[in-house]
Design a protein that fits this description.
By secondary structure, the chain is of the alpha/beta class. It has helices at about 1-15, 15-40, 50-70, 95-120, 160-175, 185-190, 200-205, 250-265, 280-295, 300-310, 315-330, 330-350, 355-365, 370-385, 390-400, 405-420, 425-435, 440-450, 455-470, 475-485, 490-500, 505-515, 565-575, 575-580, 585-600; strands at about 70, 75-80, 145-150, 150-155, 180-185, 210-220, 220-230, 235-245, 550-555, 610-615. It is built from 25 helices and ten strands. The strands form three sheets. Strands 3, 4, 5, 6, 7 and 8 form a six-stranded mixed sheet that branches. It has a two-stranded antiparallel ribbon with strand order 1-2. The protein starts with a helix and ends with a strand.
Length: about 625
Amino acid sequence: MQAVIRLYREARRRKLFRTGALYVLGAWLMLQVADVLFPGFGIPNAAIQALVWAAVLGFPVALVFGWLYEINPQGIRRTASAGASALPEPQPLARRDYLILAAFAVITGVLVFRAVHDIRETPLAASPEAATGLARGAGERLANSIAVLPFANISNDPDNDYFCDGVSEEILDRLAGFRELNVIGRTSSFAFKGSDYGIDRISALLGVRYVLQGSVRKAGDQLRISAQLLDAGGRQVWSQSFDRQLEKIFEIQSEIAGAVATTVASHVTAQPDIGHQPDLEAYEHYLTGRTLLHLREIHRAQAEFERAVRIDPEFAEAHADLAIAQALSGTQEEIDRARQSVERALQLKPRLLRARAAQGFVLMASDPPDPSGAERVLRDVLAQDPNMSDALLWLHNTLDEQGRDEAARPILERAALIDPLHPSIAANLAGRLLWEGQTEHAQRIYERLLAQPSPGAGALSAAAGFYGSTGQVGEMAARSREAALREPSFPYLFHLLQACASLGDWELADAVNDRLLRLPPGGAGADLSSNVPAGSKGPDRCGPPAGPGGVRRTWTDARGSGPFREGHCWRSLCTRRRLRSGDRGARADCRRRFALSRARPRLGQPAGTLSRVVVPAHGR
């Protein structure tokens, strides 16, 4: 105990605790500066780990230096030992001290060199341009192009997030109304919400020349909106703040859109007046509903739109988005209601493009669908607003439904320019490229899709399917696992099941298989529903045991044919009941069938693009 006390007193005399505290404070400040500056210079956050390790390894070096030496106005001096009472003051440096200090300098140099080397060697996929592997160069960026990032909520109430997102989207929509601009779609722009990506990195990923960002503070009926327009290098081009009452929100949005449009493009055509200004309470419900609709929380979005039109029955935009939410519900009753909502929106505003686009979507969702009618409506919409990515995707699907691949291709390419991080658009375009044998181009599209701050489960699952179809089983497994962890619904779990089986991890495949069997019939991810006789079998039908509620499950290729036929029966055969039955022949046959189905993927048909079929256990 006495030895510890003596050591403590000696450490205090040598000011070792002060040295350690100053070192920790300096290291912390260095990391804070790096955290702020690295993203702006395109240096990935992973590089900060190199600085952390350098700081940790340098700490004992600093303590040894603090024990042996001290720094005073005369420079570096050796600390006098405890027994040197005749020399109470620090001693001048001797020859050996210079050698020790040289060793300290070498160690420090090595630590700094390693830190710099690790930062430089951090994978370039995280840098602004290399993050995607195909980010368009400055010369290839769309002319007059702009992305509207979600405005930050700086209010004290976190519930205002929906309002802030809605304000951003409204400004985006108003900018999209200027035909002279190329406005990036909401899905791609909002992928960067809350991220620390620098403006140069965002503009590189989206291929735009300008980025609009801002903040919203809402306190009661007082509103403060700050907006700034930045060029691709992050330099400010325009900025302004607006302090108004909430009822002036529509004026603020129009002012921001007009100022930005005239800054980005040398000449723009003035937009017509927006007409009816909705009730403010209804408008807040509408903004919340739009955010929920993009998150595909259909029922909650529908409830918000219904509240909006209940408060303000003349709110045409709310009727239009209500129609889209109703049509996405998929039931015939909701589609009939969607048709009525579209009619009401067009009755209130005959020239409302969102309502016309919703009309085209409802025509395609109807039973039977009307692809030619939907095509006429959507082409008319895009002639007036070529930036509406939803309408571009719906028109592509309409043309694809009619088998008109040549006409659908340019529409899909335009959609990919306007909304490059939209998972459905990216997957459709990559699928076409894969079908044509352009595997590398297709892979670059998925690399860009995965380079966003937080790829959704849909993007991860689509990428998993692509990697599986091209034999990159390790990547397929990694992406499938991420997708299933984020959203454990059928398509994501099924991709994970395929990946586990391909890697020979039968224990995990069996566990995932059990989870699949427990999914409720018609639940999330049920892409295809069909009535098939309970006893039907054959190359594209298998007859697994009836599940809970008398429901039988099987799977079929999304196109109804192809080399996945044996894979369908594999799904029925590889249930826990069969694998645990002790029938080694059945187990071996199961694996053989699956290996065969995986070894012969059809070009352009990503592995695992199977659709769930819910089959009644007793007849039709």
